[in-house]
Amino acid sequence: MPELRRDPIVGRWVIIATERAHRPQQPRSAPAPAGGLCPFCPGQEDKTPHEVYVSGRGPGGPPDGPGWKVRVVPNRFPALMIEGELERQAEGIYDRMNGVGAHEVIVETPEHGKSLADLTDEEVTEVLFAFKARILDLRNDLRFRYVLLFKNSGAAAGASLEHAHSQLIALPITPRQVTEEIEGARRHFEHRERCIFCDIVGQERKERSRLVFENEEFVAFAPWAPRSPFETWIVPKRHESNFEAEPKARLGYCAQALRTTLRRIGAALGHPAYNFMVHSNPLRDPSSPSYHWHVEVMPASTQSVAGFEWGSGFHINPVPPEDAAEFLRKVSG
User: Fold this and answer.
1) Which H or E run contains 151?
2) Carries keyword Transferase (predicted)?
């Protein structure tokens, strides 16, 4: 059983998950497996745990069979386990709890050689709708407080398999980084009675120097203080604190913004490894007037994190966001 341990000084929780060391490793540069050996390819559904969500399979199609467009399965090597109780305990001054949660894999396409950026807007919409469906299901489990949706693309970004997929982890706590965002947004709202994310969207649309892409419902821009080169945020224009509250029609606009951003980053930087994360309001929290869900895209940096970054928490970024945004605007998406 994995476990969660809390740092008593800064309050940061760490997952201790020894089973993750046994997961398979397939480099991003590896060719498509011969003979259909990839567990995420059609016809290999028996190589994964039973699906918990599927789209595209027609009526009467057998569960865990081919014919799907998006498929969600539990991770075979989960960071947290779905079974059991939290059993919060103290060990002297330390706090721990059982590593209870959910860890799922969203297989984004049945086509092994395609990346998320290669899909159509409609296909990416189906992926985002699968995200929404899983959050709505998992929030019924009262042990969970937060669902983090994320993607690791490429070995340098932490991906262990080549076939296009993203992941979610349902947690019994809200991640510290999200909590800091929520608290910072709340302070801004208490002072100015406005959502800080709405203010940022308004300023980026007005100034346009950091704007990467815009459609009717979403903007993509380089944030004012990016942690790494070409970090890009995708934020809805309409105020909404919860990702799962978005209707499918607006998720289609998000899909267009996300796909365009990934294609431009790929064209500009030679298809780097990257991560993206969806930050949303915690599960079952009421809709917040101060917080605003968003996607953060982080191309894998050629710079390694060194002693200063680890010791101070500061990030050193040699690329001004204005330059990064101008570069991305000039490449075709």
Assistant:
1) strand 146-153
2) yes
